[in-house]
Amino acid sequence: MTQPTIIPRDRRPGAHLRMALSLAAGDTPVLPLRAGKVPFGNCPACHNNACGGRPNMKVPGPCLCPRPCHAWAAATHDLAVITSPVWVAAWRQAEGVAYHPGGAGLTVVDLDNTDAITWARRTLPLTQTVPTTRGEHWIYWGTMPSANGVRPGVDIKSVMSYARWLGPGTGATAPLPDTVRALVAQKPSPARPVTAPVPAGGGQCRHRTPAFLERGIAMAEQRITATTTGVHATVYRTFLAVLAAHGGCGCLTDAHMQRLFTAAQAKGESVRHCTDAWTNALARLGM
Fold first, then answer.
1. Tell me: the pLDDT tens digits for 264-287?
2. How high is the pLDDT of residue 257?
3. Rounded distance, CA 75 to CA 165, Å?
4. Bridge partners, residue 275, by sequence
5. Are 225 and 255 in contact (CB under 8 A)?
6. Rounded CA separation 219/45 (Å)
7. Which residues of the chain have pLDDT under 50?
8. What is the pTM of this model?
9. The 3-state secondary structure of the chain, one letter per residue
10. Spatial distance between the Cα atoms of 134 and 75, rounded to a whole number of angstroms
């Protein structure tokens, strides 16, 4: 991928769309962000993943509706899509521009505080650096799995994730170092498996019905994704509801928990917050 031609940031009407077109011209997949630095929620046609659940797919692309309503998976560099009426309407409401680093062949090391920046300067090779509200984005060529909280104040945004566009920054973009890859490779899964026994009596557990469980997990994902305020509380209440409905018979798996953690992390929750909410919900239910 060739680096896009960058135009200066501005806040005039249409600035977000112009920036998006500039980035897309360099094959960087983009999407609009609404207030709170979050993507637009599912439209009515995609409510409860009725359109097929684009975020669960492994490649970026416009939602099947085709509105920009599936976070990173809606990111695109197709100029016809970006300038379509439904996307232009979203750009008019947008508070910022985001991009899918993995779709652009990039990895963003998101350093959230001064301690994290100090660690990066001591540990990682110099690369393109972009100032953020609280820290810096260090951008490397190459892709890898995304993960939050890989160490204090450090998130990795690459495949199946989005990052805010905050300008071109400074410095030349370096290849993705093994040091960064190891941060995710060495990190255990944040999902905590449920080990509650299958109910006694030899009867068929209704929670093991695939459609019942899948519907419950999909509704939980949607509840987290759709929230605009009180994310911490919503995540905890959703975890509690899932465990209350499905946790007593051992039907939940790591994959189900990871789906819920991923939805929460897409709203800005850290792995630590997700793990704490899950642990507290387990304790509340005596599991």
1. 888 877 777 777 777 777 767 666
2. 80
3. 13
4. none
5. no
6. 15
7. 1-13, 54-62, 187-204
8. 0.61
9. CCCCCCCCCCCCCCHHHHHHHHHHCCCCCEEEEECCCEECCCCHHHHHHCCCCHHHCCCCCCCCCCCCCCHHHHCECCHHHHCCHHHHHHHHHCCEEEECCHHHCEEEEEECCHHHHHHHHHHCCCCEEEECCCCEEEEEECCCECEEEEECCEEEECECCCEECCCCCECCCEECCHHHHHHHHCCCCCCCCCCCCCCCCCCCCHHHCHHHHHHHHHHHHHHHHHCCCCHHHHHHHHHHHHHHHHCCCCCCCHHHHHHHHHHHHHCCCCHHHHHHHHHHHHHHCCC
10. 25
Find the angle CA(110)-CA(68)-CA(158) to the nearest 5 degrees. 25
Question: In this predicted structure, what is the pLDDT of residue 111?
Answer: 96
